[in-house]
Design goal:
The chain is α+β, with helices and mostly antiparallel strands. The protein is built from seven helices and 30 strands. The protein starts with a helix and ends with a helix.
Length: 609
């Protein structure tokens, strides 16, 4: 009886644990009910409105949609997934309800939340904003592209790229974005060579663009286009005046109607052909306004909106103990270009260089986050000290004026340090070495005698003390003159440093290679090669092309085999970024070929000198 009783107790405990764990899982499960639809559609064309629920539900109620006609729905599809991680199995279930809608008129409309019942509770979805564009004046989307001769072409209205800037007249150091957006009415087959412009006169921060982004519809110049952002860059102008962002180039392959029909099993169909088209972005002129001239002395080269939070570790301490004064500057603006505010420590403090840590995110308005500046100083003597208020002045873009943030004054009480706490710099309290006696210690030990005729003045050693520094001064002066002449020759310095800069970029490409980051890997390899040729041939990157590279290399006596090797690497990198995922071996091959080609180029150029 006792054994059965214990067994029943154990079974009840196990059952209770199972019930508790099950109830916890149910209570932790959150109902997710989300609505999705295209951001923009065309009047009279169908589109999908979908609702995704992560549990079983019933009684789905759609809101009133007076601006749309419901052609079909809801169609229901269910998906189920299960995975095991570290022995723990989790499962996910989702139900998708799909409607087919047609907009009645143009405008921007909000689809209110829908509702559904799950386990007796009522849940609502999110609302959606949909922009309805008017239809094109032309009958069909996209140009036929054919001619009477049957030759397919791509017109400038069928596909183009725009450089769109968020601000045309920013202040100096004010952040703004430039977006390179593709507009097309045709089907894209492949991407070719991409050459974005150089941003001279700007500090550049790249804004992440989704790799597998969906095409969005946008109306431009009275026509509807499918658009995709190819690149978005945050720029900070480093000087005032007019700065031009030059044009970029992009080669693309489109599928274009040929104007000829072919007969198939399904009937007569129009024949499509692939057409290569070179697209160029529009150059953009930015009018950068100078900052007002009445800059305070505490101006920290900061433009944006900021707050400052100071913190000191202690105001009661002993001599030779460190003081840590931390400033946290948070906000949005040119965070990386901010100068460190000056802290006026007492003169007998040992002050160290401040350490800076950035926790920043790239946004369209600038860099947002926190910049932490930590100052460390060590008082060597006891006493009362004062650290004056710290001032941080920035240019506020909301009021277009300078604003100053000020900390409070810090009063420090430094007690006498304990024995053994003096640092290796061997600072000594001046009060401890005050001597009021006239008597000094006598010298002890054996005496050294010198001959009365042995004088240092006039000896060889005496003259060497004058001659050697004079010779060294002449040598250093000559070397500096030669170095200054070489530094003045910008083309020569760029030529000499071309190999180092290429190796530096290839190290970053090697990092992306190890991370299997294909797009960034090929971008860095391309930048390394184009930058190498720009420095080596003294040609701006914007003016570089495969043709003038081949011509310059041939002029310098470089063989056709090495030139072909460079051209092959360029072609491989340009097409690989938009091709399906490459194998590790092929990325390794591209990296090794690039290193070998640059090394071989350097060796041949050295032999010619």
């Amino acid at each position: 009886m006792m054994i059965n009783k214990k067994r029943n107790i154990y079974l009840n405990l196990i059952l209770l644990i199972i019930l508790l764990s099950g109830s916890i899982a149910v209570s932790e499960a959150q109902v997710s009910f989300k609505a999705s639809a295209p951001a923009s559609v065309v009047e009279g064309e169908q589109f999908r409105l979908s609702y995704v629920l992560n549990q079983e539900g019933k009684d789905l109620r759609l809101p009133d949609l007076p601006d749309f006609d419901i052609l079909f729905g809801p169609s229901t599809s269910t998906s189920f997934s299960q995975r095991t991680i570290n022995g723990k199995t989790t499962s996910e279930r989702s139900v998708t309800y799909t409607y087919i809608l047609v907009p009645k008129t143009t405008g921007t409309f909000t689809i209110p939340p829908a509702s559904i019942t799950v386990d007796g509770g009522n849940y609502q979805s999110n609302s959606i904003k949909v922009e309805v564009l008017p239809p094109d004046e032309t009958a069909a989307r996209g140009s036929k592209g054919g001619s009477s001769s049957g030759t397919a072409t791509v017109s400038e209205n069928d596909a183009f790229i725009r450089a769109i800037v968020s601000k045309n007249n920013p202040y100096e150091q004010e952040g703004f974005t430039v977006t390179f957006r593709l507009y097309t009415t045709l089907n894209i087959v492949n991407f070719g060579r991409i050459q974005f412009p150089e941003f001279e006169g700007f500090m550049v921060e790249e804004v992440d663009v989704p790799v597998n982004q969906q095409l969005q519809m946008e109306r431009y110049n009275g026509r509807n286009y499918y658009t995709a952002d190819l690149r978005k860059t945050l720029l900070f102008p480093q000087r005032s005046g007019q700065i031009t962002i030059p044009a970029g180039r992009l080669e693309m392959v489109f599928s274009v109607p040929s104007g000829r029909n072919v007969t198939t099993f399904f009937g007569s169909q129009e024949l499509m052909v692939d057409v290569n088209k070179a697209l160029a972005t529009n150059p953009v002129v930015i009018n950068v306004r100078p900052l007002p001239a009445n800059r305070p002395d505490s101006y920290a080269n900061a433009v944006g909106t900021f707050t400052m939070k100071p913190n000191i570790n202690s105001t009661q301490l002993r001599a030779n103990e460190a003081i840590s004064l931390r400033l946290e500057i948070s906000g949005t603006g040119n965070m990386k270009l901010i100068s460190n505010p000056e802290v006026d420590f007492p003169s007998n403090f040992e002050v160290y260089d401040p350490t800076v840590a950035n926790a920043l995110n790239v946004t369209t308005n600038g860099l947002t986050g926190i910049r932490t500046i930590e100052y460390m100083a060590i008082p060597r003597y006891e006493g009362s000290y004062t650290i004056p208020p710290i001032k941080f002045t920035y240019f506020d873009l909301n009021t277009n004026s300078y604003k100053t943030l000020t900390t409070s004054e810090y009063n420090l009480q430094v007690a006498k340090g304990e024995p053994g706490t003096i640092s290796s710099s061997n600072f000594v309290n001046q009060q401890d070495v005050a001597v009021e006696q006239d008597i000094r210690f006598l010298k002890t030990g054996e005496l050294n005698y010198h001959s009365i005729s042995n004088f240092f003045v006039g000896s060889l050693s005496y003259w060497l003390w004058y001659i050697i520094p004079l010779v060294l001064l002449i040598v250093i002066f000559s070397v500096n003159r030669k170095q200054a002449r070489e530094n003045a020759n910008v083309a020569l310095m760029r030529n000499r440093k071309a190999n180092k800069m290429a190796i530096k970029r290839l190290k970053l490409a090697e990092k992306y290679l190890k991370e299997q980051n294909k797009e960034n890997f090929y971008d860095e390899v391309l930048r390394a090669i184009w930058g190498y040729f720009s420095d080596k041939l003294s040609i701006p990157v914007a003016n570089l092309s495969k043709n003038n590279i081949e011509a310059e290399l041939s002029k310098n006596g470089i063989g056709d085999e090495l030139i072909s090797k460079f051209m092959k690497i360029l072609d491989t990198c340009e097409f690989a970024r938009y091709a399906p995922a490459e194998s590790d071996a092929e990325m390794d091959s591209v990296y090794n070929s690039t290193v070998d080609a640059i090394g071989e180029m350097e060796n041949r150029l050295k032999k010619k000198k």
